[in-house]
Amino acid sequence: MEEVTKEKKNLNFLEQIIEEDLANNTHGGTITVRFPPEPNGYLHIGHAKSICLNFGLAQNYGGKCNLRFDDTNPAKEDVEYVESIQEDVRWLGFQWADEPKYASDYFEELYQMAVKLIKDGKAYVDALTPDEVQAYRGTITEAGRPSPWRDRPIEESLSLFERMRNGEFEDGRYLLRAKIDMAHTNMFMRDPLLYRIRNIEHHRTGKKWAIYPLYDFAHGQCDYIEGITHSICTLEFIPHRPLYEWFLEQLADPTKIIPHQYEFARLNMTYTLMSKRKLLQLVQNKVVTGWDDPRMPTISGMRRRGYTAEGIRNFAERIGVAKRDNLIDISSLEFSIREDLNKKAIRFMGVLDPIKVIITNYPEAGGDLIIATNNPEDETMGKRLMKFSREIYIERDDFMEVPQKKYHRLAPGKEVRLRYAYYITCTDFVKDTDGQITEIHCTYDPETFGGQSEDNRKIPGTIHWVDAASAIDAEVRLYEPMFTDPTPEAYENEIEPKKFMHFLNPNSLTVIRAKVEPAVAESGREATFQFERKGYFCVDKDSTTENLVINRTVTLRDSYAKAQQK
RNA sequence: UGACCUAUGGUGUAAUUGGCAACACAACAGAUUUUGGUUCUGUAUUUCCAGGUUCGAGUCCUGGUAGGUCAACCA
Description:
The chain is 28% helix and 22% strand. The chain has helices at residues 2-8, 13-23, 45-60, 79-91, 107-119, 130-137, 154-165, 215-226, 241-251, 276-284, 299-305, 309-319, 330-344, 488-493, 559-565; strands spanning 32-35, 64-69, 101-102, 123-126, 175-178, 193-197, 211-213, 230-234, 260-264, 346-348, 350-351, 354-359, 368-373, 383-388, 391-395, 415-418, 423-431, 437-445, 462-463, 465-467, 472-479, 509-516, 528-531, 535-539, 548-554. Strand 8, helix 9 (241-251) and strand 9 (260-264) form a beta-alpha-beta unit. The longest helix has 16 residues, at 45-60. The structure holds one RNA strand.
């Protein structure tokens, strides 16, 4: 009993609405929702929130979720986007009901609905120019004036509308508008535009249509046609809702499912650009290599970078959904990614900034085979073998000539553990003329094979390493987070948004040559792995056998680095 | 200066609908650790303001204040 009441808590406002509707049998005891992107760009992390919300609601309440392309503006749309959107939704782990839907599937029905409005005296063909339309509409504080064509006879509008459809007029010559109220305090109710003339090819309907419906007329009617019960969109559509409802009042059969619109706050994230328009600009201006550039906040960019679908879904769940404007700290996303990767990622040895270590008392010929654990917290992930010999590489910052306090890695005279291998003690080091350390000399303790000693002496530091002879060179792309300016206004006003971006900052991309263990090259391009103490990485899709390319997925939470900063 | 929306720790989101303000991230401190990771424990920081109703208000009422959205033939 306790448990039941507990589960009823912590519902977000949409879940509360849906549970109430389900309880009242409002729509026959079921729900149908939809995710309705316009195919004019790739999906980004903001869309992921909406996808998880809509598909998640359908899943949790035994309903359906449609994927519907809102393709009513052919000037901006393309099949490339249609395909990438489907791929991204599927990759995120969701399946839409039936086939994908398109607003363009309903162009004929929409047209007939518009004809009905004209016949009912609720719509008319206008002949104002764009400037005139704007002037007649009034302003936020002043009422608009009726168009001189507002009372055009029904028969005349009907005939003109048909001729618009047939492509008899040039773009912009005529418009179809609803006849509502030019003095309404809500601008969207001042005789909204229904159809405009566009003599261009549509990516699905080709040259069949010369007129295309606008969002306000199309969206609600598409929802109605598909039997959507809950039409969930973002906050900026709130003022559209009265219009959404007006159209349904005129056109919908009240015995059928009447959809309702609900709004939630879109995702804003610190240091992250969430505007499709500006992301498109970055692609077009070749600031990035494409929509799936690992620096992009797109779903495809994050996928390429090694983010997991489950991590993104957990993030969406974690941030919740409400109606107030928000600015989510990006560390919350990174936490969700790490949390998932911590369970799934193999721990490989990789040395990003190599420095050679010679173990002077180790035999020159031969070597040891070392058994490494793929994931110490998950035995089922297995083990692998690594070579160990007299010459190895370690991370440059794992050695300090003069160790600072609390530094417990390698330093002259100090002993550390080479992970899975031996304890070594630094005896000497070599510097070049610039004072750069080029080589470290150590001795090893043969009694510590596997990284353990019988006397159980305390070894404060464990460092990782790769065998010099068998190591593979890799090009590692470090996408360093650049925290330049966290305010959302900054992105909006900045001409070059990359300056403010978490990863799009030009200084964020560092390419280095690293030494990695051979197994990394065989790990494939899907799996993300961890270089211990350096972060999570994944092999890039452009990687070749000659040139191993690795992207850094996300850094580790590193309190040592933070302590150093202070 | 019109209409609409929203105000809960640094950031998000809850609060059994009027009954002890909590969960996650971030921060800090400690323990464990063959990753300065993970895990575990702990600390600090919260109801926009002013009135009112009530035994009792984050929640209800009145009045303010702040932020957001809207004047594309975009969605």
